[in-house]
Amino acid sequence: MALDRYEAIAVAVNRPLVITEVGFGNREGAAYRPWEWPEDLSLATPTLEGERQQALAYKAIINTFGQSERVNAMYWWRWFTDTYFESFLLFTFSPRNKLAEQMLRSACR
User: Which of these, 31, 28, 30, 9, lies nearest to 19 by C-alpha position?
Assistant: First the structure.
């Protein structure tokens, strides 16, 4: 598992892990190819299933990396403080106003 490799490195250098980019798009298959940019999905349309998969992908990260004693922090990718950047996109990595936001708020209390 990837976490085991990262934890071994953290132990070897005696440092905590900081996960600098965690992000999943609000699309079906979000966890399958998380690096795929939403802008590349010009023929796709957002679905409730895509939102559900985004939320489940975030939950999986929290349930694995988030439970590690070596992980000090995780930063959510593309969750802008200025909503202008995400207001005109059908697909976005931001969990704002989606099922993923609800899940993150309840998991990160």
Answer: 9
From first CA to last CA, the distance across the chain in angstroms is 26
pLDDT tens digit sequence for 79-91: 877 777 666 666 7
From the number of C-beta atoms within 10 Å of its C-beta (0-12, 13-18, 19+), residue 52 rates as middle
- Predicted model pTM: 0.83
> Tokens representing 85?
């950047």
Task: Give the Cα separation of 87 and 85 in Å (integer).
Answer: 6
Cβ atoms of residues 75 and 21 within 8 Å = yes
Q: Which residue has the tokens 């106003």?
A: 97
